[in-house]
Amino acid sequence: MAHIDVLDEGLALDAPYLVEGLPGVGLVGKIAADHLVEEFEMTHYANVLCDGLPRVAVYQEGDADLRPPVRLYADEERGLVVLQSDVPVHPQAATEFAECIDGWLDEHSVVPIYLSGIGREKDEEPPVLYGVASGEGHDLLSEAGVDAPAETGVVTGPTGALMNHAIQERRTAVGLIVESDPQFPDPEAARKLITDGIGPLAGVDAPTEDLVEHAEEIRDAKQRLAQRMGDGEQAESTQAKPLGMYQ
């Protein structure tokens, strides 16, 4: 049966922010989510056992415990929950996932922060970040100082499906879109998401020096997943695309 399997009932979550870390362009969402979980030493709060998610088990270096591929980590003190996914998720499954966790989102008054990269060739300029929203998310973006998009676009893949569901449910939600490398994992863009987006929105201060100092190691560690997503799984990859003036 599809459900959120809570492992730590002792954690009290009151209107937390949920940072979504599904794989996508530049792996910016996954890199940012993984960094937050590690930096804050977040608690493995729940397993996401929703229909449509890959029926696989994952394990980590130095740890024999098996885990499902999609999990929730929580930091009670910071009022923060992170969705961590170790596999690409098909957009259709993302819609089922959104419906699967609706009750949990409502029960805890969760405000989702969805993350996406928009492919831009790398140059000397820092990546640009902007925000989109549904419900009262516009006010949250304004308070956090996150600018609106400078062009018309569309968010595809699983994150696009989650955003679409938020619109249908009239849910307060925020989306952060950052310019990112279209071909390789992009720790710099993930750092931008954290420092200029997630941090101000959720009121958390996460050190990000490691994302810059160990950028090459992070790229190498994430490259295999990025290559797999590029070969036959591109439709499952979260990304933002400009639509242009004429569609």
Automatic annotation (TrEMBL):
Q: Where is this region: Disordered?
A: 220-247
> Does the keyword Transport belong to this entry?
no
Which sequence ranges form a coiled-coil region, renumbered to this chain? Answer: none
- Cite the Gene3D superfamilies for this sequence: PAC-like subunit
Give the domain of life. Archaea
- Extract the InterPro entries matched here: Proteasome_assmbl_chaperone_2, PSMG2_sf
Which ranges does the record mark as transmembrane? Answer: none
Database matches in PANTHER family: 3-ISOPROPYLMALATE DEHYDRATASE (PTHR35610:SF8), 3-ISOPROPYLMALATE DEHYDRATASE-RELATED (PTHR35610)
Name this polypeptide is given: Proteasome assembly chaperone family protein
In which organism is this protein found?
Halobium salinum
